[in-house]
Design a protein that fits this description.
The complex is a heterodimer. Chain A is of the alpha/beta class. Chain A is built from 5 helices and 4 strands, in the order βαβαβαβαα. Classes of the chains: A alpha/beta, B alpha/beta.
Chain lengths: 143, 269
């Protein structure tokens, strides 16, 4: 492990209407961001269940980034009201069992915020790189 | 005990309820039993389960209520059981019009063992109120651990799981027909110990639903401190959303509605 440089594996759940469109904008604007993120498009960030986040960690993700519309801009009016409830709760629960809660991050990114998307992915990737591999993954290797 | 039996007898004789779900001593073991008007004499054997002998009566009541939707039932409840009833009313699993609680206050030893914040129900037909335990020391102990140590400890516990589903099967609040724990797309199947996230998935479902009866932990053959996990989940729900699980006063669970406004903000990166 030590001889190979650690490349974080990050799963992104991006909402179809805002954050995914923001990623599109980042793309057509030729903005650079690290390829560590694997994006999964969902119709609304409110459809991202804590199960999906936990499943991502179980399968070896080092970080999970959830992106949704700003509050008030949700295509389904209030889907993201649920997103923030779930993610805040899950972050605190992860912290209780000793997993860094920073490995799960929620960011509101609109379709117009291509630069914000690129910056968020860059910052998040660096943060996870500093944190190192997910302890869940290490546990799996040891087993 | 006489007070409790007299109340039940009256309920049965006046046909206010079709049956009373309580306990009866069978060959030295306190077991759940349905007392009815047809076997009224049996009522003399009706007891409050001694010591910490407890069964998920709320769960049995759900089965009865589903089979006899028109009938009303009386049920022996401790503080936790009543919280369970309240929560089940909110989740549409029981009809409050068709349930008559017969209350039992827990003794101090039980409350201390459970670290129970509400060891008596709203009506008391047996026992005396004791001192509630407001703060869980078991949760505090885990909170105080350094992060990596907490993770190692939980991991050690999770690795003991033999995936018997005992925690779920005994739980009075687990009423779903389909279970995420058995969903092949959410959980690996056919291996023991299960995925590390197994207990966390259950903890998510217990948040704002667990009534802290502790039967899961008692049923667990691997001695996983499940109760600590669910106590914390409920603590978080209270902290974040102001929701008091099992209280008739606070509205529906925060997971059941979107809300009128957003008070939380994403944590900064």
């Amino acid at each position: 492990m030590a001889d190979k440089e650690f490349e974080p594996k990050i799963i992104g759940f991006f909402c179809n209407w805002c954050t995914y469109a923001g990623a599109d904008l980042a793309g057509v604007s030729r903005l650079q961001y690290p390829p560590n993120i694997r994006v999964i498009r969902v119709m609304c960030s409110g459809t991202v269940s804590p199960h999906h986040v936990l499943r991502a960690f179980q399968k070896g993700a080092d970080g999970v980034l959830v992106g949704g519309c700003h509050i008030g801009d949700c295509h389904y009016l209030k889907g993201n009201y649920m997103t923030i409830k779930r993610m805040r709760f899950l972050q605190d629960l992860l912290k209780f069992i000793g997993l860094e809660s920073e490995r799960l991050h929620l960011e509101w990114i609109s379709a117009a915020e291509g630069p914000k998307l690129a910056q968020t992915v860059r910052d998040f990737t660096e943060k996870i790189r500093k944190l190192g591999p997910s302890p869940l993954k290490r546990a799996k290797l040891a087993a | 005990m006489e007070r409790l039996r007299a109340k039940v007898k009256k309920l049965l004789e006046e046909k206010k309820v079709a049956g009373y779900l309580g306990y009866k001593m069978v060959e030295g073991h306190p077991l759940p039993h349905l007392f009815t008007l047809e076997n009224l004499a049996e009522l003399e054997q009706s007891i409050v389960a001694p010591g910490n002998a407890r069964y998920p009566l709320d769960k049995l009541l759900q089965v009865l209520a589903a089979r006899y939707p028109e009938a009303s039932f009386a049920i022996q409840v401790r503080g936790c059981d009543e919280r369970g009833l309240n929560e089940l009313y909110k989740w549409g699993q029981l009809d409050p019009e068709k349930v008559v609680p017969v209350g039992v206050a827990c003794p101090q030893e039980q409350a201390d063992y459970c670290e129970c914040p509400g060891p008596w129900p709203s009506v008391i037909d047996y026992g005396e109120k004791c001192n509630p335990v407001a703060v869980s020391r078991r949760v505090q102990q885990v909170d105080a651990l350094p992060q990596s140590q907490a993770f190692e400890e939980w991991l050690g516990h999770f690795a003991k799981c033999i995936k018997c589903y005992g925690c779920r099967d005994v739980c009075p609040m687990c009423f779903c027909k389909e279970c995420s724990l058995e969903h092949p797309e959410l959980m690996s199947t056919g291996k023991v110990p299960p995925d590390t996230i197994f207990q966390l998935v259950r903890a998510i479902h217990m948040a704002g639903r667990c009534i802290d009866c502790g039967l899961c932990e008692e049923a667990c053959p691997a001695d996983i401190p499940l109760r600590v996990l669910y106590k914390k989940a409920n603590e978080l729900v209270k902290e974040l959303f102001g929701y008091e699980t099992g209280s008739p006063a606070t509205g529906p669970s925060p997971w059941r509605f979107l809300g009128e406004e957003v008070t939380l903000e994403p944590k900064p990166l």
